[in-house]
Each structure stands twice: as structure tokens, then as C-alpha cells.
């Protein structure tokens, strides 16, 4: 369950602005504020089923964007590769100025992600 929450939040971070304001709000309340569907329904003066349908529809839209664009997958792969590079370059020869510079550049790139 935690993995699904993390994935939906990550997808929302990348593609959320492409959703309607209502879809963004419902996903935020459900996944980031940890509201139940019933709590959201009460807050929005609607039914739990309507909120459930809205959440599922928004999740599906986010997944469609990811399937077509792959930005989250590329981000995660880039992040993993940068982490591996940092480990490789920050080995015992860390006193080598070029390696220190390379690690510094990797850190700068990682902060931009």
C-alpha cells in the first residue's frame, strides 16, 4: 500500500498540473493528507462512490501520462544512475581532484532533479 501511495504522489508531482483542480484536490486529500473517501465525500458534499470514481479516474489519467511520456521512469533511472556513479567515484581515490570535481557535479545534477 505504501508503495502505491508513493507512486501516485510521484505521478501527481510530475503530471498533477494536467489534472483538473478537483482531481488534484481529491488526490492530495486522499494520498497526502491521508483522508478517507468518506471524509473527502463529506467535505465535498458528495457521495463516497463519487469520490472513489474520481480518485480512480485521476489515477488512471496519471498512469496514462506516464505510459505515454515515461517521465517518472526516466527520473527514477537517472537518480539511481547518479547515485551509483557517486558511489563509484567517491571511492578510495577521493583525493584525486578530477574525481572530487566529478562527484561535485553529480551532486549538483542530483539536486536539480
Task: Please give a quick description of this structure.
By secondary structure, the chain is an all-alpha fold.
Describe this structure in words.
With 113 residues, the protein is mainly α. It folds into two domains: 2-69, Orthogonal Bundle (Arc Repressor Mutant, subunit A), CATH 1.10.10; 73-112. It has helices at residues 2-15, 21-32, 37-44, 48-69, 71-89, 97-112. The longest helix has 22 residues, at 48-69.
Average pLDDT confidence is 91
N→C terminal distance: 25 Å
Structure class: mainly alpha
Compute the number of structural domains.
Answer: 2
- Note the total helix count: 6
- CATH C-level name of the largest domain: Mainly Alpha
CATH homology superfamily of the largest domain: Winged helix-like DNA-binding domain superfamily/Winged helix DNA-binding domain
Quaternary assembly: single chain
**Rounded Rg:** 20 Å
Beta-strand percentage range: under 5%
CATH architecture field of the largest domain: Orthogonal Bundle
Secondary structure topology:
Elements: H1 2-15, H2 21-32, H3 37-44, H4 48-69, H5 71-89, H6 97-112
From the structure above, extract its key features.
113 residues, mainly alpha, 2 domains, 0% strand, elongated
Amino acid at each position: 500500500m505504501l508503495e502505491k501511495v508513493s507512486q501516485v504522489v510521484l505521478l501527481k508531482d510530475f503530471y498533477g498540473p494536467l489534472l483538473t483542480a478537483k482531481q488534484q484536490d481529491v488526490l492530495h486529500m486522499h494520498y497526502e493528507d491521508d483522508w478517507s473517501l468518506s471524509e473527502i465525500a463529506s467535505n465535498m458534499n458528495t457521495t463516497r462512490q463519487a469520490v472513489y470514481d474520481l480518485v480512480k479516474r485521476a489515477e488512471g489519467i496519471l498512469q496514462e501520462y506516464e505510459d505515454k511520456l515515461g517521465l517518472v521512469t526516466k527520473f527514477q533511472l537517472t537518480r539511481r544512475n547518479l547515485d551509483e556513479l557517486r558511489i563509484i567515484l567517491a571511492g578510495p581515490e577521493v583525493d584525486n581532484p578530477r574525481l572530487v570535481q566529478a562527484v561535485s557535479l553529480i551532486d549538483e545534477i542530483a539536486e536539480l532533479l
